[in-house]
User: Which sequence fits this backbone?
C-alpha cells in the first residue's frame, strides 16, 4: 500500500520526501490541535470539584 502511494507522488525523490514531511507534519498538527483536545474532553473526569471546610 505504501509503495503504491509513494509511486503516486509527483516529482523527484527530494520533492517526494518534502511532500511526505509536510503531510506528516499536517497530520500531527491536526491531531495535536483538534483531535486530542476533543478526546480529552470526552475522557477526562469532571473538573468541577468543591471542597468544604
Assistant:
Amino acid at each position: 500500500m505504501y509503495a503504491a502511494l509513494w509511486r503516486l507522488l509527483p516529482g523527484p525523490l527530494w520533492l517526494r520526501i518534502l511532500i511526505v514531511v509536510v503531510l506528516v507534519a499536517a497530520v500531527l498538527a491536526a491531531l495535536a490541535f483538534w483531535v486530542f483536545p476533543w478526546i480529552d474532553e470526552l475522557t477526562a473526569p469532571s473538573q468541577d470539584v468543591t471542597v468544604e471546610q
Observations:
- The radius of gyration is 20 Å.
- The mean pLDDT is 88.
